[in-house]
Specification:
The chain is mainly beta and about 475 residues long. Helices cover about 5% and strands about 40% of the residues. The strands form seven sheets. A six-stranded mixed sheet has the order 2-13-12-5-9-8. The protein is elongated and about 110 Å long.
């Protein structure tokens, strides 16, 4: 169940960019920019991005004007102020027999101007559909924003130098993106849910088995965890970002062998019988290899610069420890392969979670009229003690105050084969509600649904009045 797209991107990163087309400012659907790695380290003087051998990093557009024989016009190419056209920049005409391009003015700035002369004679002048192509290395001073460019033909060289609309020839003006920058890599997962079973002995020491869960094993993010290069344009022609030299970037360009992924969550099920997290415990947490550091709350995995897809975070409760509810997230801890690229961390990628099954009961409207008391009655017909928790959900416009404001809940245990009457609902929960002393009570019990029952009761001791309401099971009424 391999993540084919992720793996394909990881592999193609080792190849040289070949058949992608130059960014075309006059394309009917808009220019498709070349996408370079956002991780490129840019010194204060800028970094030279080389498009040699990579046509996708070139720039092109239609002339947009039909020349007469011997006619001369003047072109202006202006881009964002984060780029400088280097000394090796060249502009070529698609039909060199029809005309020639003059010397470039403005090299080492973000704007160049040049003349175009139609020299082909009456039968072969420079035409509107002919194209101009800019090649060569460019100095970029930032990867934070895209490089956008505009082009146009002018009547006079001074007008081309000044820019604007004066002297601009109709139909010759085009604009659009030339270069953009994107994160080159990704850490992905589709989260899964694994249920610790209340019916196991002891409770919650085994999972409810399913297609990605065994009685003692959870495959968190089953077959969807992936680490590798990122396709920067989806269905477009570019399959990875470009590195400084204009070729596709690779994992080895970005990451050192010491790069790791850390999983955060409850890893107490992996511990040894003596409570330690070394030795055999390291093999009970796995992600493309065993953990090399394990604690109660995290596991670290060495991943280096080798991409993978279609995997999972493996958690093995081999010794039958009682499992708590927990979410499991992944964080990439990058170590740069060189000073040329600075990859950053990817944090909190949810791989999955462990939940517990059991019983939930509700009193949709619990209230305490003056002179009355409120109680909860919980019964356990099973042979095992069961823990419970009572929480309060307030109505619109009310809040909590007083001693219970910190957590708004009560916890306790219903002994096996016994009934528990909770008399302090009025004082400790509903009594802490500001405004109208009424709310919804939610009772969760770590016990099988068919062994747990509940009742909400209000009592007027002075008058001997009692009102009983059986607690509702969500989804059954």
């Amino acid at each position: 169940m391999l993540n084919k797209k992720l793996l394909a991107v990881a592999i193609v990163g080792t190849l040289v960019a070949g058949n992608a087309a130059a960014a075309n400012l006059s394309a009917s659907g808009g220019a498709i920019p070349a996408i370079f790695a956002k991780e490129i380290v840019v010194p204060s003087a800028g970094i030279v991005l080389n498009s040699s051998g990579n046509p996708a990093a070139d720039l092109t557009w239609n002339v947009g004007y039909n020349f007469s024989a011997g006619e001369v016009r003047y072109a202006r190419l202006e881009c964002s102020n984060t780029i400088k056209f280097a000394a090796g920049t060249a502009v070529t005409l698609s039909d060199p027999a029809a005309g020639n391009v003059g010397s470039l003015n403005g090299l080492n700035t973000n704007t160049v101007t040049f003349s175009i002369t139609s020299v082909g004679g009456p039968a072969n002048n420079v035409l509107s559909a002919d194209t101009l192509l800019v090649t060569g290395a460019h100095t970029v001073t930032s990867t934070a924003t895209p490089v956008n460019c505009s082009v146009g033909l002018y009547d006079q060289p001074s007008q081309a130098q000044a820019g604007g609309t004066t002297g601009l020839i109709a139909g010759s003006y085009f604009s659009g993106p030339y270069l953009t920058f994107a994160q080159s890599y990704q850490l992905t997962a589709d989260p899964t849910v694994h249920t610790a079973d209340v019916e196991s002995d002891p409770s919650f020491s085994e999972f409810v088995p399913d297609s990605v869960t065994g009685t003692d094993v959870a495959l968190l993010g089953a077959y969807s965890v992936g680490y590798g290069l990122r396709d920067p344009d989806g269905t477009g022609a570019q399959t990875a970002t470009f590195r400084i030299d204009g070729n596709y970037i690779t994992m080895a360009d970005l990451f050192a062998a010491t790069t790791t992924i850390t999983a955060a969550g409850d890893f107490t099920p992996t511990r040894n019988a003596n409570g330690t997290y070394t030795g055999a415990a390291l093999g009970r947490a796995w992600l493309n290899g065993n953990a090399n550091l394990l604690t109660a709350t995290s596991a670290r995995f060495p991943v280096g610069n080798a991409a993978f897809g279609g995997l999972y975070l493996y958690l093995w409760n081999q010794l039958g420890h009682v499992m708590s509810e927990s979410a499991y997230t992944l964080t990439l801890n990058p170590v740069a392969a060189s000073a040329a690229y600075a990859p950053t961390a990817i944090t909190n990628v949810l791989a999955g979670e462990i939940v517990r099954n059991g019983t939930e009961l509700q009193a949709p409207l619990a209230q305490v009229p003056g002179g009355w008391l409120s109680r909860l009655v919980l019964t356990n017909t099973g042979g095992t003690d069961r823990g419970y928790e009572v929480t309060v959900q307030t109505e619109v416009g009310t809040s909590f105050a007083g001693p219970a404001a910190a957590d708004n809940k009560l916890t306790g245990v219903i002994p096996a084969g016994k009934t528990v009457v909770i008399d302090d609902i009025s004082k400790n929960l509903l009594g802490a509600v500001t405004g109208n002393p009424r709310a919804t009570l939610i009772v969760t019990v770590a016990g099988p649904n068919n062994q747990i029952q509940g009742l909400y009761q209000i009592v007027n001791p002075d008058k001997g009045s009692i009102s009983n309401h059986v607690l509702v099971r969500p989804g059954t009424n």
